[in-house]
Specification:
By secondary structure, the protein is mainly beta. Helix content is about 15%, strand content about 40%. It contains two helices and seven strands; from the N terminus they run E-E-E-E-E-H-E-E-H. The strands form two sheets. The chain has a five-stranded antiparallel β-sheet with strand order 6-5-4-3-7. It has a two-stranded antiparallel sheet with strand order 1-2.
Length: about 120
């Protein structure tokens, strides 16, 4: 048992002492990726070599509502999906000048995927 957060793993599942906050589940490769000049994307980061990387199933996060920062967006998702401006998903985008990668929780993944496609 881990004495710092009082958890135990049984048959591959993590159990947390009643009354304690469970750690948020993070998806393996679904991330929010911020670049220096191309903006912010959400998708499956499949490779990264220094500041360059490839994101599959990528949505550009042009404008979001209901999250104070990218960190909150990666944990909680958005509270106002109808006010967000996320264009359609593209199969793949190759990014240069990556400056931040934040893994998303399942909650954030579901929220981002649920934002209606923004079209001009």
């Amino acid at each position: 048992m881990n004495s710092e957060i009082n958890e135990i793993t049984v048959n591959g599942k993590v159990y947390v002492e009643k009354g304690k906050d469970a750690p948020k589940a993070v998806l393996k490769d679904y991330c929010i990726v911020r670049t220096h000049s191309a903006g912010v994307f959400a998708g499956n980061l499949v490779e990264q070599n220094g500041k360059c990387g490839t994101v599959k199933n990528a949505r550009r996060l042009w404008y979001w509502s209901g999250a104070a920062s990218l960190s909150q967006l990666a944990v909680d998702g958005v509270k106002n999906p109808d006010k967000c401006r996320f264009p359609c998903e593209v199969a793949e985008v190759r990014l240069t000048e990556i400056i931040e990668v934040i893994p998303c929780t399942q909650k954030a993944f579901d929220s981002i995927k649920g934002v209606p496609v923004w079209k001009a």
